C-alpha cells in the first residue's frame, strides 16, 4: 500500500457510508421519508466532519486528495446547498403518489459525492471521476418531477449530449497533459525539453474549454437555460449552485497549484467580457424565472472570473465571499419559488405569476425581494459586499476594462432583478384567488435561515465571514502548491 492510499478526507467516508445505508434501506423496504431522513442525517454528519481526514498526507505530493482551508470552505458550501435542496424537495416527494421517488435523495447524494471529489482532488483521476458521477446523477435528477414528462426528458437528453461532448474534450486534454508531463497531478502541463510547447498549450486549452462548458461561460452557455427550465425547481437550484461551486473550485485549484500560462489571461479576458454581457443581455428577454436565474448564473460566473484572473492577497477572500453570497442568495430565490408553488396552481416559474404577491403573501415577497437585491449587489444583502470585494481585486490589479464590464453588467442586472420586484408590488387587476397551500414548516424555516444569512452577511460581513475565509498563507500556498 502506497502513501497516497492512506490519505482520505473524512467526508468521503461519511457520505459513502450514508449511501450504502440508503441503498440497503431502499432494498429492504421503500420509504420516501426514511430515504430523505437518511440523506439529511448523512449531510449533517458530513458538515460535522469537514476538515478532518484519515491517514497522513505524503510529503512528496503523491496524494490523490488534499485537505486545506480552501477545500473546507467550498465543501461546506456544497454540503449546505445539498441539504437546503433536500429540504426544498421533501414536501413534494412525500405527496407524490404517482411514482416512487426513493432514488431522488440517492441521486442527489451521489451528485454531492461527485462534487466533493472534485473539490478535494489534486489528481486528474478523482477529479474526472467526480465530474462524471456528478454529471450522471444530474441526468437522472433533471428527469424527475411532476412536470410534463417530455420537458424533463428533453432537458436530460440535452444535458447528456452536451455534458458528454464537454467531458470528451476535457478527457482528451487530460490525455495530452499526461503525455506532456508523464504525471496525473492536477496542474497546467509544462512541456519538457523533448516535448513541443504547442502540445502543452493545446492540452491546457482543451481542459479549459471542458471546464468552461461545465461552468456554462459564453460561448458554451446555451444548454443551461434549457436544462434548468426542464428540471424541477430544486434540481435547477442544484445545477445552478452545487455544480458551479464544484467546477469553479476545481478551476481555482488547477491554475493555483502551478505557474499559470500567459495565454490563459488573454483567453479569460475575452471569456469574462462575453460571459458578463451575454448572461445579462439574455436575462433581459426571459419571461420564465427559472431561465432568468440560469442567465443570471452565467453572469455571476463572469464576476467570479474577474477575481480569479486577479491573483493577490485579496483574491481568495473575494472568491470565497462571492461564492457564499451567490450560494445563499440563489438558494433563497429557489426556496421561495418552491414555497410559492402549489399542487393545483402556479408553479412559480413564470414571472407573471408573481403579480401582486406583496398583497397576498408579503413574507414570501419580502424574502424574494431581499434575495434579488443581494444578487443585484444592493445593500443590505451580502451580495453588495461580495461584489465590492470582486471590484477591489480589479482595482488592485488595475483591470480597467473588466471593471467597466462589471459596472455595465451590474446596471443591466438591476433592471431585470428590480422588474421582478415591480411585478410583485403591482396591484392585481382581479382580487387575489386564494389557492390552498399545504403547510410547509421545513420550507418556511429554510427561507428564514437563508434570509438571516443574507442580512447578517451584508450588515456584519467581517464577523460573519471572517472565520470561514482562507488566510493569506493559504492563498499563497494555493499558488505555489504547498498547502496541505
Question: Main traits of this protein?
Answer:
484 residues, mainly alpha, two-stranded antiparallel ribbon, 19 helices, 2 strands, 72% helix, globular, disordered C terminus
Structure description:
A two-stranded antiparallel ribbon has the order 1-2. 72% of the residues lie in helices and 1% in strands. With 484 residues, the chain is mainly α.
Poorly predicted regions are 472-484
Distance between the termini: 21 Å
Q: What percentage of amino acids are in beta strands? A: under 5%
Main sheet: strands, sense, barrel:
2 strands, antiparallel
- Rounded to an integer in angstroms, the radius of gyration calculated over CA atoms is 22 Å
> Number of helix segments?
19
Q: Can you give the helix content as a percent range?
A: over 70%
Strands side by side in the biggest sheet: 1-2
Q: What is the molecular shape?
A: globular
Transmembrane segments: 6-28, 35-54, 74-92, 104-121, 127-144, 156-178, 198-223, 235-255, 267-285, 292-314, 320-342, 363-388, 400-418, 443-462
Subunit structure: NDH-1 is composed of 14 different subunits. Subunits NuoA, H, J, K, L, M, N constitute the membrane sector of the complex.
Catalytic activity: a quinone + NADH + 5 H(+)(in) = a quinol + NAD(+) + 4 H(+)(out)
Family: Belongs to the complex I subunit 2 family.
